[in-house]
Write the structure tokens for this entry.
Amino acid sequence: MAAPYWFPAKAHGWGWEAPSSWQGWITTALFVAAITLVGALLPPTRRPVAFASGVVACGGLFFALLLRKGEPPAWR
């Protein structure tokens, strides 16, 4: 059976720990692949604004997924 949360909350501080399920690991791998692809297609030295926009978009999507599939974060 899959873990109830893909990403457990940190024991200290605010945020999430490493993934606790295979879905979380796949999602993290896809996020890393997306950032790598953005860097390859939009080199930061040639297209800095497009690169930054791509990284912010990928990060925003990943953060939204963390909020949805991760344990609710709270300061601990």
Residues 22-69 form one domain. The two ends are 28 Å apart (CA to CA). Residues 37 and 66 are 21 Å apart (CA to CA). The longest helix spans residues 48-69.
